[in-house]
Amino acid sequence: MTKQQNNDENMITLIDEDGNEQLFKELFTFDSDDYGKSYIFIYPAEQENDESVDIQAYIVTDNQEGDGQDLVPIEDDKEWDMVEQVLNTFLDDDGNFKG
């Protein structure tokens, strides 16, 4: 998926392989020295005021054209465990973001 930054710095538009666009809110990003990668946590913008949101995590890479970034699914189990641990440090016992 391709990431496009919107005017609002915390909002991004994801464009899938079929050209469909969906607006997401950026929760936070972080870098891992162990994996040498950057990661992003996002959730659908339409869920912003919902009691619970579907948080998604991706690897952030520069796209081949050099004019934006791509979000790549995390497929390695150990890498996913590390990302999940990072997210859990920002969630309280009820699963709410402490941010």
Q: Can you characterise this structure?
A:
The chain contains one helix and six strands. It has 99 residues and is mainly beta. It has one domain. Strands 1-2-3-4-5-6 form a six-stranded antiparallel β-barrel. The radius of gyration is 14 Å and the shape is globular.
- Average pLDDT, all residues: 85
Largest sheet: 6 strands, antiparallel, barrel
Which strand order do you get reading across the main beta sheet?
1-2-3-4-5-6
Helix and strand composition category? mainly beta
**Into how many domains do the coordinates divide?**
1
Helix and strand run: EEEEEEH
> Which regions have little confidence, pLDDT < 50, spanning 5+ residues?
none
Please report the distance between the alpha carbons of the first and last residues. 26 Å
Number of strands: 6
Spatial shape: globular
β-strand amount: 35-45%
Gyration radius (Cα, Å) is 14 Å
Give the % helix: 10-25%
Brief overview:
This protein has one helix at residues 77-89, and strands at residues 2-5, 11-15, 21-32, 37-44, 56-62, 69-72. It is mainly β and 99 residues long. Strands 1-2-3-4-5-6 form a six-stranded antiparallel β-barrel.
